[in-house]
Structure formats: structure tokens, C-alpha cells
Predict the 3D structure of the following.
Amino acid sequence: MKFGVIIFPGSNCDHDAYWTIQQVAKQPVTFLWHDSHDLENCDAIIVPGGFAYGDYLRTGAIAKFSPVMESVRKFADGGGLVLGICNGFQILCESGLLPGALTRNVGLKYVCKPVHVRVENADTPFTNACRQGEVLTIPIGHMDGNYFCDDATLEELRRDQRIVFRYATPTGEITPEANPNGSLDNIAGICSPGRNVLGMMPHPERSSEPELGGTEGFKIFQSLVGAMAEKP
Amino acid sequence: MTMSAAAAITPDLIREHGLTPDEYEKIKQLLGGREPTITELGIFSVMWSEHCSYKSSRVHLKRLPTRSRRVVQGPGENAGIIDIGEGWACAFKIESHNHPSFIEPFQGAATGVGGILRDIFTMGARPVAIMDSLRFGPITPATDISEKELHKNHSVLEGVVSGIASYGNCFGVPNLGGETKFEPCYSGNPLVNAFALGLVRRDQIFYARAAGEGNPVIYVGSKTGRDGIHGATMASEEFSEASEAKRPNVQVGDPFLEKLLLEACLEAMQTGAIVGIQDMGAAGLTCSTCEMGGRGHVGIEIELDRVPQRETGMTPYEIMLSESQERMLLVAQKGREDEIFRVFQKWGLDGVEVGRVTTDGKMRVKQHGQVVAEIPNEALTDDAPLYKRPLERWEPPVPREMPENIELAAPGDLTKNLKHLLASPNICGKRWVWQQYDHMVQTNTVESPGAGDAGVIRIKGSQRGLAMALDGNGRWCYLDPRLGAMHAVAEAARNVACTGATPVGATNCLNFGNPEKPHIMWQFSQVVDGMTKACEELEVPITGGNVSFYNETLGEGIYPTPVVGVVGILDEVHKATLPHFRGTGRAIVLLRAGEVGDATDVESEFGSSEYAKEVLGTVWGYPPELELEREAALQKAVVEMIQAVLLDSAHDCSDGGLAVTLAEAALPASVGMRVDVASQGLPPEFVLFGEDASRVVISCDHSNLSGIQQIGVKYGLSLDMLGETAPEQLEIKLDGRVAVSAGVSELRKVYENALEAALQAEPTTVGAG
Amino acid sequence: MKAYVYVSLKKSVLDPQGKTIQGALKKMGFKGLEEVRQGKYFELTLDGGLTRAEAESEVARIARDVLTNPVIEEFRFSLED
């Protein structure tokens, strides 16, 4: 059982995810270089946060052409577990591994703060340690987290229960005030039809240790470890 | 020697380069009697500018204490370094980017962050925190400010904050806050002081020194363009209306490239093939070449044809003076260049060999094989002019005693006065600012901006943590520069101590007006004296920093504004204490190191407070008295109490006085209080809003009071039992009578929304980025 | 040859930047304004090795595959000799 954390030029949460997996989840983990096709037999891939290629064209727009992403696409097609965090979510959308796109926050500013997200589907490899409807406090830090997709896609996401997290109040109500960036339907995270690819804007690695003020994000890593243990 | 086509050096040209006729004579003398080439004139002009040479300040800066058993590197390198134990050291520095930020707020502030980050990782340290100290003109309507000026101040603030955010967020370093203050004197002269701190293993520090004859000199990073030419000279001139036309001089930052440079440089350093390294900041290639050679007592020869250029047809003058960002110059071990080039290639960067180390102690610049400049290093560094400029004692044009028309001690409710202060720009919550900064990346942030008086980070793989705080009070330095500077050091250190960390080092950014004016130079000298005294008493040596003169527009100068950054060590970071109350039914105590002064002192000191400025609309008198020995005792006592795990919270009592301090402690966790303060016969405004120094508000479990008392007595503190935390309602009595009473959630709204409300009071400006 | 590529958000996608500029312009008193949409502009300098038709198809490919995200953006371009 091994995790791989991708490094793109401009990734800056790569070491944070690595640390959480190695030191908190106590699991084997390795870095994967963007320029290589080799996923080094990893069982789960993290596409970390940051500003891959400076986000200069669009968030994730250049990273999707990296050799490593070709391998990730194949890996995901074969049912491999892929978690995209923040910039990683943006890259997964650009790559077509997840539908929709992440556009500029309605407030037009970068927003860094803890938010509350409601677990809409606890039956995924990323949320099996959570209760359905549970509210988690996890920080966000982004300029482009405003999720958008067309009506048909939204319908499909809802029907297939692929909306995994929605921005909510501390008590779990879905309100416009609880939405930090203008996301469609308060969407904070979605998964692929096979449930094996998840993209989320909040940073679970930033709330995985008590010293950092919270541990609720760690449930995502805990879930993954559980899911991997069950896999043959 | 052969020199390229010599342009005639006219007196006008010399003046345009900011050089005096005497300085020009000295240049000729240093060149062995010959006239400089135009390239050489440009080189001298930037290296001898105030910004690079410290020619007006050096004689004074020598007085600052710079040593302790923990100081590994003092002033003179890219950043200072302090030993923090367990094999770790931290590099840190604060630097101004005031002038560029006024001309183009977004890029000016962004490149300010970029520059200070390069200073840190040049030393082999990975940047782990940044902070900023910002000063702007007023952002709320007042009778003495035009709508145009208000609008300009808003857009400078918006631009500066988004510039800092854009650079730091992309680079991936947490911004732990700092301070944002407003005074009319900063309207035409905003201050942007950027602080950065990095971690390095004690035995893996790199220095900006060249060595080894024949060793290759390698250029890496961004290509050289015409941007920022004469940035350093610009920072050494007053602003006039024409300065705004200097816009093309401002550099554009590329945080993505800087992130690649960081990773590539740190990885290249691991090869062991790097001899010395320096970033190209102010004065670009010129400065890095002669300083690296100078520090290593060697020469450097470079060929400009090999310098990567973004534009065609650049002259040697332009290449040498360009301030294009994100460039580094390094000296490698001969024969091991490829190891370094391979690392750069991995990160998509091109390293280019542009020259080599020589033994003649000269900076030699060639183009197409022809020498275009040849100057002894010392001529540019050690032999730069040194001025002992005239000083003239100066009195601020304010009354020293309380004006007679000021009426205090009106009986009754002071709740609205507290709300007024909580909503004032200098005191209100700065969430609008720091929420735009990524303050959590790197997952080390223990105390974020807004949460604490200081930022605290943990050091991964160790029990230790680092606390850091920036502080400066321009108004106090205006009223008394020496005392004001002492307060800046004391408050920054007190903020660090309130987290439980022991302050161990400091960096300073000294922002002043035109040093050719004797009263400005006097203010400067006084500030250095005050800072020297405070740094000695509080045992925080200055390890580096910078001086920014000429912060004047159309003859209007800023308040003398020294900003101090203090760094402290927490042996056990899990003990770090926050400033806010954590629950109800806990004891609230005011720790005091000084005596309450007599009525005359109190009246004159009250005139320097936020209350006097904001509520009474008048400034008079002096800053509060400060006894450094007692201040040091207070700080030691607080640290000891936190180490003994006796406290729930500790909050430095400063801007807005006791009432504001209590409110700030109540707001974050919505905990109210019932306190009763003894007035000792003083007017209620003094007691609640006076800004006496050396005070800390703590909260704790009642059972810890005896332990706290013991430590307090040991350090000679007074302990005033104020009352107890309680649900929701904030109630402050004076001698048993209610003076302030309000719901915490109501106060919180006032405090948290004020800044945003002020900025939304007019059309949002659409800034860059 | 030069290619000028304009990328903008699709009409159906909210453009918060355009909206903000529009609001600001209105407040500042500019008249006759119905809508502002913000977009991106790219200037590509081609090396001359392509015919006009080839250039057209190559630029279209660059614009479609790289410069835009078809989920939210659309583009147009022009060529100039």
C-alpha cells in the first residue's frame, strides 16, 4: 500500500500532503515527478495544491499536458484512487477526469479561511470514515474555487450522488452565506462515476493535526487508508 | 586599457545620476584619475545611492547592538541568522519597498515580497513565514481629506494587499500577518515593509562571497530586460509629481519563476558545488558582482554578451543597472558546473556561465570582448561616501500639555467610545487583509494572523516553534523619536513573549524623510539611540534590516517610522498561548510592570493615544513612559507563566488601552466578562483607553492564581485582579459603577466589519491581477 | 505572420470580473454601457514556415486545445501578415 504525491513546477502543498501521509497516517509515500510516466506502483495518487505552472494560462491548464497526467488518466480509468486537492481539483477538471471547471471566486479575491463542508456522500473511498451529513471544518485557500458545470452535468452529478462535499453552515445548512466562492450548488468536492477520483477545494492536510487547530480533514486520509486496506 | 565609446560626462549627467560634484571628483580619484565611462558612472550612481551605500545612516547604525551568543550572522549579509537550537538556525530580515509601491502598488508590493524571499533562500534557508508592516493614508472620510485622495488611498491599499497576496500565495509561504496602520502623513508616502524568515541547518548556511581564482560565475533565472533601471536611485529621491511618470521603472514579479529558483537553488546547494551565491535585487548585476567579489576579497570579470537578455540592443549601462526580478548570481567550483546546471535544467531553468573569479579585486565588465567598466570593488563598497550629516533637534508642532478645550471625566457610559475605537481603522480587525493571504500553506501555522499578537509556527520534526511580530508606532516617534523607537522594540518583543516565546533577535526597517534635512537626521539618530537601548535591555540584537530615506512627497515627510521585527523561540510549541479568552468562569488579571504615573504625566501621555487621535481628534503630549528593566522583567515573567502552563491567554495591552485589549480578548471565542477596575482617582477615559506601556492581560483558572502570583512577585510585577470571564456580555465597571456594557457579538460585528465597510464606501477599484 | 487570439467566458458562465468592472464604470458615471465581459488576449508570432491555411488550422488547434477550457470559454482569432 503506497501513496504517490505528484510534484509539478509550482506545486506548493506537495510536501504538506506528503507529511500528513507519512507522519500522521503513517503510510508509505513517495513523490512523483511531473516529467515522468512512472507512477512507481503507487496505490493512491495525490494531485496536490499550489500553483502548477504559476496558474498563468488558467488554473491547471498546462499541468494537464504533463507526462505524469497521462499515466494518472490510465490509472484512474483502471479504477485507481486519485485525490485532487485545490489546484489538484482544478487540474483534474482540466484533464477531463472530473467534469466542470473552477472559475474565479465571486469576490474576486483569494480567500484563506476554515470553512464548513457537509459530507453529501459517505459511501466513497475518500469519505467512508465520515457519517452521511456530517459537517467537517477544513480550510480553503484559493482564488479560483467557483465550481461551474452545465445543467445536464449538474443533474447527472446529483442523480449519481457524485457531489461529495457542499459548503454549509456549522450546523449543516446549505445557504448562500456559507458559500465562500460562489460555487454552483455550494459544491466543494465531486467524484468520478466510479467513485475512485475525488476533487475537493478544501485542504484536508491543513486540518489533520491538533497543533494546526483541527483534525477533521484527517478523516479523508483515514478513509483512503481504510479503502486501500480493503482492496485486494 | 581599451574603453568602449565614451559618452561625454557633463555636469548635468552627473546631477541626473544623483551624484554631487564632490562625489564625482572622488570617483575620478578612485579610478586613478581618469573619467568614468557612462557605464561606470551608472554603476557608481547606484552603488553610491543612499539605498545601496547607507551613506547617511552608516555612522549611526554602528551603534546598534548586533551580537549575542545566538547570532550566527549579523548585518552585512543578505539576511541575519540566529541559532535556534537542535542544529537549526533561522535567517530573517525586513526590507522596505515603499517607493515602488507608491508608483505601482500591486507590482511594487509583490516584488517587495519577492526580494525579501530571495534574500532568505540565498542563504540556504527555506522561507517558512512572511509578514508585512503597512502604512497608508486615511481610508475613512474626514474634513481634511479630498475624495480623490481617499480614492487613491483605497486603491493603494487594495493594490498592495493583492500584490503581496499574489506573490506569497503562489510562492507558497504562509503570511502570518503583521500590521496595517493609517495616518495622513502616509497618503503620498505609503510604507510597505516586508519581513521573511527561513529555516536552515546550522551547518548548511551559504554566504554571498566569491572565492577561488578561475571559478565560474553563473547567472540563473529571469532574463534581463530594461525594467527597473535606476530603481535604487529612485528610492533615494523625494517624490515629485513627475515621479508618477516613472512607472516604467517598476519591475514586474514572477512568483512562479521564483518558486522554481527556490527549489533549484536549495537543491543545487546540496551538491556541494556552490561556493557563494547572491540574488540580484536593487542595482541588479552591478551590486551582486561587486559585493560578492568584495566580501571574498577577489575580483569578478563578466562578459555581457553571455547575460541572457529579454530585449535586443541593450547597452552595457542598461544590462548592469537592470532590476529585472528573479535572478541569481552564483560562484561554482571549477569543473563541477555541470552538477549545478543539471539541477537547474530539472527545474526548467537555464544556468549560464557569464564570467569568472579573478584575483585582482576588481569588477571587470566586458561586452564583445571589450572592457566597458573596470572598478576596484572597494571603490563601490567600502570607499563609498560616508556622511555625518548635520543634526538639528526638532519639536513637533503639537502642544505638550493637554489642551484646555479637552473635556474628560464626563460621567456615564463609555460603551459608544469603545465601539468608536473598535471600528477605527488602526484598531479594527484586519481580516479583509489577511484572509487574502495564504497563512496555512506548509502546515506549520500554530498562530495565524488575526488570532494572535504574534505569528507562531512549529518546526517540523522538532518540539520547537518560532514566534515573530512586527511593530512600529510612527505617531509616537513623531512626538519623541527616541522613546517611540524604544516602544517599537518593546512592543514587538512583548507580543512575542505573550505567545510564550523568548525573544532572541530583531531586524529593523527604518523609514524616514529626507536625510539632508537636519531635523530628519536628528530624528534618525534619536531612533537609533532608542532602539540601541531597548535592544540591549531586552537582549534582542539587530541582525539586519534596511533604511528607507526620502519618504517625502512635495516636501511633506512621513512620521519617523522605525518598524521592528522580533523573533522568539518556543522550546515546546504546544504550549504556545493565544491572546483570547477560552471559556467562562476564568480569572482575568492585569500584569503591570510600571507604576501608574501622577495625573500630569497621565494627561500628557494620553495625548499620544489612539483615543486622543480618533475620539478627541487632537494629538498632544508624549508617548507613555517606558522603563526597560521593568519591561524585560514583565516579558520574562509572562514567558515563565506560560512555560509553567498557568495561563489560558495572554494579550499585550497596547493600542486603545485596557478596554480595547479586554474586548479583543473577548471577541474571537465570544466569551464575555465581568470586570471592575479601580480608577485610583483618574478620569475614566485614562483608565480605560490610556496606553500605559508594560502591561499584559491574562486569563487563567482560579487555581493557578497563586502560582502566577509567585512568579509575579519574583519579577516585581503588580497584579490587578480585574474580574472573571462570563457568557456573552462584556461589562467593565469603574470603582463599582458600570462604564461599558455591550454584547460580545455586537462588538464583534463592529470590530470585524469596519475595514471592509470603509473600503466598500465607494466604487471598488479594479486592480491588476 | 501574427495571430491574435481572443478568449472569453461563454455567455452562460458568470463573469464576476466583468460584472465588477461594469458596476464600477456605472458608479463612475460612464454612460451608454450595457455589459462588460472580461477576457484574455494572446499574440502569437508565427515563424513563417506555414501557409495561411496551415496557420489557420494550427492556431485554431492551439486555441482550442490549450488556450481555452471548452467547459467555460470560447475563442476567436485573426491572422495578420
